[in-house]
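Quick one:
INPUT:
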C-alpha cells in the first residue's frame, strides 16, 4: 500500500471540496482551484470531513497514480487555505530586484533591465533588493515562476553570482590553476 496515498487529507474549516467525476474543485479563503485527476483513482469524502484516495488494484501504474493523486488534492487544499511561497536570493555586485506595477524589475548584469510580469494568481514581494518572494495558491505555478526567474541568471559555479533559491548551496569550482 502506498504510504502517501493511504493517508487521509484533512480539510480545514472554510474550505469546500466538490468532486464531480474526474474534476475536483477546491474553494477556500485564498481562491478556487480545479484539477482533472486520473479516472482510475476513486476520491471519496468521508463522514468525518476528510478525503481519501483509493486505487482499484495493485498494478504498477495504479500504485504510481495513488500517491500522485493524493498529493495533488492535498496541495490544492493547502494552497487555498494557506498558500505557497518560494524565496529567491540574488547574489552579485550591482544585482538587485524591485517590485513595480505588479511585476518585477531585475538588474542582473545585462546591458538592460529584465522585466517580469506576474502571471494571474501569482504575486511578487521584494523585502530587500536582494530577496524575491513568489506567492500564490497553485504550488506548481509558484515553483514554475520561481524556476523561470532563476533561469534568467543561474548561479555561476566560479563566482557564485546569480539568482538562487533560498538555502540553495552552489558547488564552487576552482578557477584556472595559477603558477
Amino acid at each position: 500500500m502506498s504510504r502517501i496515498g493511504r493517508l487521509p487529507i484533512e480539510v480545514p474549516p472554510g474550505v469546500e471540496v466538490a468532486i464531480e467525476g474526474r474534476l475536483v474543485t477546491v474553494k477556500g479563503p485564498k481562491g478556487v482551484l480545479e484539477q482533472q485527476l486520473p479516472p482510475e483513482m476513486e476520491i471519496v469524502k468521508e463522514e468525518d470531513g476528510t478525503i481519501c484516495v483509493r486505487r482499484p488494484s495493485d498494478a504498477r501504474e495504479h500504485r504510481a497514480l495513488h500517491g500522485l493523486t493524493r498529493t495533488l488534492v492535498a496541495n490544492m487544499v493547502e494552497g487555498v487555505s494557506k498558500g505557497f511561497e518560494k524565496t529567491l536570493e540574488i547574489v552579485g555586485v550591482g544585482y538587485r530586484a524591485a517590485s513595480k506595477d505588479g511585476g518585477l524589475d531585475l538588474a542582473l548584469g545585462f546591458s538592460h533591465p529584465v522585466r517580469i510580469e506576474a502571471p494571474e494568481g501569482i504575486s511578487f514581494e521584494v523585502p530587500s533588493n536582494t530577496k524575491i518572494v513568489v506567492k500564490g495558491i497553485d504550488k506548481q505555478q509558484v515553483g514554475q515562476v520561481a524556476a523561470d526567474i532563476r533561469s534568467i541568471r543561474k548561479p555561476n559555479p566560479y563566482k557564485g553570482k546569480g539568482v538562487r533559491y533560498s538555502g540553495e548551496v552552489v558547488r564552487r569550482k576552482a578557477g584556472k590553476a595559477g603558477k
